Each structure stands twice: as structure tokens, then as C-alpha cells.
Amino acid sequence: YKDTFMTKVLTREDTNQPYWKEKFITRLPTLFAEKNKSKYREKHRGVVPYETLTYGDIVSTITKTGLEICNDIKMGKQIKRDSKTYKKELGDFCTQFGYEPFKPAPSKTKKLQNQKRDKKYYERKQFEKP
Q: Where does the record place Basic residues bias (predicted)?
């Protein structure tokens, strides 16, 4: 997206107009664009200063934000994996010391399966033709 946008905009005479800089950010995926705008608002007292921003500043901020999001996703996945390991280790620890083993909460899928199984299904009545 960046390369295509830059090649089209940089050939124009009004390249440095705030409109194009704003358009560059707003055409990003919605949540990603909002996250970038909020970073600028934090730095500049609630306003995005499109007049003073350069395309290099915008691209570097977008890159940093993208890396932060990717790292957050990776950390979330790692925490999820680690929590499963920790629950197992805690259960082993409890049994070794004679305590009741730690039982993790049943997963959502098991709850859904039980709900489906407990549901009563009614047969559809066949209507006779007069």
C-alpha cells in the first residue's frame, strides 16, 4: 500500500498538502489507523499535526505500531501456552505434597457440548392435507 500510494502522490504538485497525509493514514485498516492517530494525538495535545508531519515520520510511526501489535499478539499466544503448562505443573506439585490436585476450569467447548446434549429436541408434526 505504501509504495503504491507514494508513487501516485509524489508525482503530484500538491504532495505536501495535509489532505494527502491524512488520506494516507485513514486508508489503513480502521483500527490500525485509529491507533496511529491516537499516538500523534498523545504527542501533540489531542491534534494530529498533518501540516508538520513528513511521509517519513508517518511511515516510521506506522512501522513501529505494526511491530508493537505483532509483539502483543505473540506475547498473548505465549502467555496462553505458558498458562497451560503452569496449570499442569501446579497440579503435579499439589499431588506431590498431598493436596487436592488443581483442576483447571472446563473449556467452553465442553460446556457447549453439554448444553447441546441436554437440549430436548421435539419432533415436527406432520399436517394432514384436507
A: 108-119
Q: Is 46 left (phi over 0), alpha (psi -120 to 50) or beta?
A: left
Q: How far apart are CA 28 and CA 25, in angstroms?
A: 6
pLDDT higher for 38 or 106? 38
User: How is residue 49 annotated by DSSP?
Assistant: -
pTM: 0.56
Percent of the chain with pLDDT over 70: 67
Please give the C-alpha separations between residue 70 and each of 20, 32, 62, in angstroms, as whole numbers: 27, 12, 12
Q: Are residues 8 and 55 in contact, defined by beta-carbon separation less than 8 angstroms?
A: no
Report whether pLDDT(22) > 80: yes
Radius of gyration of the chain (CA): 28
Q: Are 58 and 24 in contact (CB under 8 A)?
A: yes
Query: Residue with C-alpha cell 510511526?
Result: 61
Q: How confident is the model at residue 82 (pLDDT cuts 50, 70, 90)?
A: confident
Domains of the chain by residue range: 2-118
